């Protein structure tokens, strides 16, 4: 239950802190790592999963927007499909980066929590 709660709260923190480019995912992972209560390894898992969930949900929302724009560009040649594909690939890569930054923050938070 501790890991699931940490991932949920880390995801919520990721949603609020995502406007800060690099520090947002690290801070959200740090928060998840502090809550995970199991040392650096549990904190890293919580931070990684919260970053992955936050990035994937954000990617799905923006991919749906890109798909709607693709429907708008449908009669105008290749621009719509290319736009949706580039946006989708970029967002998947962005979610992986958020997950890795969350892993770093979670490991630090878990290590701090494990020492106290």
Tags for this model:
116 residues, mainly alpha
List strands and helices in order, with pairings.
Elements: H1 2-17, H2 23-36, H3 39-72, H4 79-115
Molecular structure report:
The protein is mainly alpha-helical. The chain has one domain. The chain has 4 helices and no strands. Helix 1 packs antiparallel against helix 2 (23-36), helix 1 crosses helix 3 (39-72) and helix 2 (23-36) crosses helix 3. It starts with a helix and ends with a helix. The relative contact order is 0.23. The model has no long low-confidence stretch (mean pLDDT 82).
Question: Quick gist of this model?
Answer:
The protein has 116 residues and is mainly alpha-helical. The protein is built from four helices and no strands.
Judging from the principal axes of the Cα atoms, what is the shape?
A: elongated
Count of discrete structural domains: 1
Distance N to C terminus = 21 Å
Parts with pLDDT < 50 across at least 5 consecutive residues: none
Total helix count? 4
H-E string: HHHH
Number of beta strands: 0
- DSSP strand (E) fraction? under 5%
* Mean pLDDT over all positions: 82
Structural class: mainly alpha
Helix content: over 70%
The largest sheet is:
none
Radius of gyration: 17 Å
């Amino acid at each position: 239950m501790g890991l699931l709660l940490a991932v949920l709260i880390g995801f919520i923190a990721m949603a609020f802190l995502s406007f800060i480019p690099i520090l947002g995912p690290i801070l959200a992972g740090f928060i998840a790592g502090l809550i995970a209560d199991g040392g650096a390894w549990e904190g890293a898992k919580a931070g990684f999963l919260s970053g992955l969930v936050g990035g994937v949900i954000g990617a799905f929302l923006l991919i749906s927007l890109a798909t709607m724009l693709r429907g708008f560009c449908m009669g105008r040649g290749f621009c719509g499909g290319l736009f949706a594909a580039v946006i989708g690939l970029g967002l998947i890569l962005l979610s992986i980066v958020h997950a890795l930054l969350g892993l770093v923050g979670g490991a630090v938070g878990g290590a701090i929590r494990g020492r106290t």
